[in-house]
């Protein structure tokens, strides 16, 4: 599968750039492969640099204000400087590693609303930089992440929303400057519960799973029994009944607080 994006030409008669992704479906820890094709214009031009990266559109809270910010969270330079001849085509293949912490954008083949992650291409030509639009990628969950997500679905939870927020979750292995929250509506048996928020923070060995149970919007209670963080190995998660684990925690907290 190929995904193409044509960048704007750098001035009249200037070079143009086309990014082609070989496959848009990836997983954290994987690689997105593709090719950048630079089409020479009507004159020779000095190419000072070419790079590709991954970018996420992230929510930022600053005081009482909220806004969206594009954060490039990985970047790779492709080769060195060279002269692009007029009319020539210069093709540069690349493989861009997907960080283990990269948020998922797909669950069971369905796109998560609110997710915006993709490949960026940047071409520097003679003191000018041409940055292209985002070439979206679909980030599917790792098997260990899918096991947790499937447990919520098995219990009857429904997907509400997902977002990416700038900041850090304390006590986790987080290295990126932002994290993902996946929000679920509860089924009727958890009648006093408004929603559950889920975050994953993974590396090549394991992941931190962060759960927050909210009785009402805006109730954040880290350190209380409505907040839980635990570690799951990426290769040894099969031995746990995650639906039973989650149900036990929800039931214990709910009955203690007379929510259910």
UniProtKB/TrEMBL annotation:
This is Sporulation protein. The lineage of its organism: Bacteria, Bacillati, Actinomycetota, Actinomycetes, Kitasatosporales. It comes from Streptomyces guryensis.
